[in-house]
Amino acid sequence: MTSDAGDVSALSFEQARDELVQVVAKLEQGSPTLEESLSLWTRGEALAARCEEWLLGAKRRLDQARPDGEAAS
């Protein structure tokens, strides 16, 4: 796992989700330094945004696949 924000655009949903779980676990355990905590937080934000991109894309695809007039619940 990378501890900086780095490029997450190439990660699959599953990769981003799994790394985000690891980041959260490390943050919950407490980091030895404030700098490391900030780095983990920044990485976590980037990973969460990547997961959201995947989920919004999946929702768009599902909405497009629905017959006209059928609303999403």
UniProtKB/TrEMBL annotation:
GO terms for cellular component: cytosol; exodeoxyribonuclease VII complex. One of its GO terms (molecular function) is exodeoxyribonuclease VII activity. GO terms for biological process: DNA catabolic process. Keywords: Cytoplasm, Exonuclease, Hydrolase, Nuclease. Bidirectionally degrades single-stranded DNA into large acid-insoluble oligonucleotides, which are then degraded further into small acid-soluble oligonucleotides. Belongs to the XseB family. This is Exodeoxyribonuclease 7 small subunit. Heterooligomer composed of large and small subunits.
